[in-house]
Design brief:
alpha/beta, 13 strands, four-stranded antiparallel sheet, single chain, seven-stranded mixed sheet, 12 helices
Length: 325
């Protein structure tokens, strides 16, 4: 089998699905998007569709569960790190106002957790990757555990960070104890079975326990202004694109009371910022000039755009806070 460009789909299996929110099989294609991150995965192009009944957007057809690993090469976690020049940039006055990405992301995640569970509570993070948030939550006074599918990340979290972490096939919620809060940062949109994950979360949580996660905002203004006609998603790793309405409907259907769905800009990096940084640091400008452009050009513009769109409820990321009914 080959894709539209004749690229061989070696080992790739695709499946058709119905809407996970309302169950409808009726959908309309929005556009076809290619894999923007890697050019060596087995298929370039995937179609994003919109449910005709509830408006949920999702990839259809999509890779089957066992085919998804083909789109997560070993370099995936390293590729998500900040550009080295950004991490090593000196703390200028502007960067103190708008902290480095990793710092502001962790601060915001801890703040959202505190709104649902006080320090001292037991927190399970699903999909912690390299464990930075687990570390931050531990430093904030939480008893933390992780559930991660990547064996290398599990080993790193266990041995380097000394935090309990399991793979899904070895996790025993009874042995781990019931938890006060389940968190999924930049994970929920990757799940092929979000309903199954919410069912799992219910089994992990104490009565009245909290759930908080982030997803890209399907209603983000940057999609309309800068990325019209493309998914603005990490396709096909992002299998779903949720709006405030569709994510709320899904959670209510699965036994959660939604407390807040807020449009934020500090728990993830926008596609606009990521592409702008990538273009800047690949440009032929000298390093000193890049720093000037970044600190006094890119950062102020991104800061203004993020704050403005967030205030309108159309920022690039949604943070969803809910409790088990």
């Amino acid at each position: 089998m080959t894709d539209a460009k004749g690229k061989p789909d070696a080992g790739l299996e695709l499946e058709q699905i119905t809407c996970v929110v309302c169950g409808s099989a009726e959908s309309a294609p929005l556009f076809t998007s290619r894999d923007l991150r890697y050019d060596f995965t087995p298929r370039d192009e995937f179609t994003l569709v919109e449910c005709a009944r509830c408006g949920l957007r999702y990839v259809n057809p999509r890779p089957t569960e066992r085919s998804l690993d083909l789109f997560y090469p070993d370099t995936y976690y390293r590729d998500r790190k900040e550009p080295p020049r950004v991490r090593r940039a000196p703390p200028s006055g502007l960067r103190r106002l708008y902290p480095p990405r990793a710092e502001r992301v962790l601060q915001e995640k801890v703040r959202h957790a505190r709104a649902l569970a006080p320090a001292g509570g037991r927190v399970l993070e699903i999909g912690p990757a390299a464990g930075q948030c687990l570390e931050a939550m531990r430093e904030a006074g939480y008893d933390v555990v992780g559930l991660e599918r990547n064996p290398k990340m599990v080993e790193h979290i266990r041995n380097t960070l000394e935090i309990p972490c399991w793979r899904p096939d070895e996790f025993d919620p009874a042995g781990a104890g019931r938890v006060d809060l389940v968190v999924l940062w930049n994970v929920f949109e990757h799940l092929s079975d979000p309903v199954g994950m919410l069912t799992q979360a219910r089994s992990f949580l104490r009565p009245g326990g909290g759930l908080v996660f982030s997803v890209p905002n399907a209603a983000a203004l940057e999609r309309e202004v800068f990325f019209r006609g493309e998914s603005c998603e990490d396709v096909p790793r992002h299998l779903f694109s949720y709006s405030p309405q569709t994510v709320r409907a899904l959670l209510e259907k699965e036994g959660f009371t939604v407390e807040r769905v807020v449009s934020v800009t500090r728990t993830a990096v926008s596609e606009l910022q990521e592409r702008t940084e990538r273009a800047l640091f690949r440009s032929p400008l000298g390093r000193p000039l890049k720093k000037v452009v970044y600190n006094f050009g890119v950062l102020p513009l991104i800061w203004a755009w993020d704050r403005g769109t967030g205030a309108l409820g159309r920022g690039h990321t949604l943070v969803v806070s809910a409790r088990l009914r």
